[in-house]
């Protein structure tokens, strides 16, 4: 059974350092030190741990954000120990974060993720009901560990905590949809050999963008192709967002995966 609760005391917050190393293969230099999380928690932020069998197996860290008169929570990190990934820990952490934020008057949580990590895209958009409409090129400048070899681009996710779509997804997670609308790009090949060809300029309200199904395997097989995909999808997302679209789901057709984008009314 997974239990999620706020970290209590410095010793529990310190556990997040080992979890960062385990989840992302961070070096000692790259981890967020526990002192930063302690200060954040003391100043109104959230540091929560997921526990199973008496061990900390995951964590989430967020803090207040402010822009244009609106205050929300930005979730900077959520990590799960590799041996506990795919076992509901991440969903339990996000459910806890949502409840915690709503109780304190927040209606929005944001975070960033790598758009080529399709499991994360499925989780964030498909399972949680969040959406993305902002793209950051090489946001963190990370060059080692999980992020070695290609620029650390990110999508900014908006999770509107009390939106009907979010409530529905948390009650019943639907299967991945089939891609709908017009293609945003042409691709060639298949499997790890899938390669970008050229961008299109669709006009439909719903468009889709194919991406590699397994970035990490592609980086091992062909780092140059993985880097090409990064630059290609960067251009595609920037064009789509500039033309009023936002990413709302991750679609599937067999082993092929596609971002589903919709034009904002």
UniProtKB/TrEMBL annotation:
Transmembrane segments: none annotated. InterPro entries: Acyl_CoA_acyltransferase, GNAT_dom, GNAT_N_AcTrfase_prd. It holds the Pfam family Acetyltransf_1. It comes from the Bacteria. Residues 2-153 form the N-acetyltransferase domain. GO terms for molecular function: acyltransferase activity, transferring groups other than amino-acyl groups. This is GNAT family N-acetyltransferase.
């Amino acid at each position: 059974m997974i239990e999620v609760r706020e970290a209590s005391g410095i010793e529990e917050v310190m556990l997040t350092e080992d979890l960062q190393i385990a989840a992302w293969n961070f070096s000692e230099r790259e981890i967020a030190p526990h002192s930063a999380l302690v200060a954040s928690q003391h100043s109104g932020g959230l540091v929560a741990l997921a526990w199973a069998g008496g061990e900390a197996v995951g964590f989430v860290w967020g803090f207040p954000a402010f822009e244009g008169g609106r205050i929300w929570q930005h979730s900077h990190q959520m990590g799960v120990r590799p041996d506990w990934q795919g076992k509901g820990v991440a969903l339990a952490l996000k459910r806890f974060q949502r409840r915690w934020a709503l109780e304190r008057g927040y209606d929005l949580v944001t975070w960033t993720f790598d758009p080529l990590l399709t499991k994360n895209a499925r989780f964030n958009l498909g399972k949680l009901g969040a959406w993305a409409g902002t793209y950051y090129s090489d946001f963190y400048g990370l060059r080692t560990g999980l992020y070695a070899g290609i620029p650390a681009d990110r999508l900014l996710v908006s999770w509107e905590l009390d939106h009907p779509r979010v409530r529905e997804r948390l009650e019943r997670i639907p299967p991945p949809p089939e891609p709908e609308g017009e293609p945003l790009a042409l691709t060639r090949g298949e499997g790890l050999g899938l390669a970008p060809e050229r961008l299109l300029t669709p006009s439909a309200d719903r468009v889709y963008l194919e991406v590699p199904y397994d970035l990490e395997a592609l980086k091992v097989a062909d780092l140059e192709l993985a880097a090409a995909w990064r630059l290609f999808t960067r251009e595609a997302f920037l064009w789509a967002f500039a033309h009023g679209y936002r990413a709302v789901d991750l679609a599937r057709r067999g082993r092929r995966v596609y971002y589903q984008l919709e034009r904002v009314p």
